[in-house]
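Intended use. Records like the one below are meant for learning the mapping from a protein sequence to its folded structure. Do not use them to infer anything beyond what is encoded.
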Amino acid sequence: MSLEMRITGLWSLDYLYAPGAMEDVIVTFLPSGEGWLCFAHPCQNIVEKFKWAIDEHDLLHLKGTTSTMFYDVDEGDELALDSFFDEISDMEILDVKVDIKKELTPRGENEVITFSKPLWDPDNRFALVHRDFASIKPPSFSYSWRSTNG
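Structure written out for the chain above:
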């Protein structure tokens, strides 16, 4: 199977260890060449959407498209003012070697992807969650949900 096929899916830092962490870093590679990095925390979420490609030397190249930072606080909270949505991203991670192999994790045997450069400082290893592309949707955030959901 080609690297392009093997890299696609939803990968999680937390899946390398055990369930229950308060935060996670998720990297998603879609077959369309789009993807995102998501730092998910109870109070802060950061999403870097990107385009990705594998070159003829099997090196990965990521070029950011948009960046979002959402503080999950009350709308009037001072931190809410620091939130931003879909701003232009300056993320660029080039010439990344990728290794994917089966490893034993606390969740059992799983595919683990290792990047030669950190994608989210200092994280460069993630375990596969799934490749059910119909259920993979980019994260989105807003304060409007509070007005309808209490």
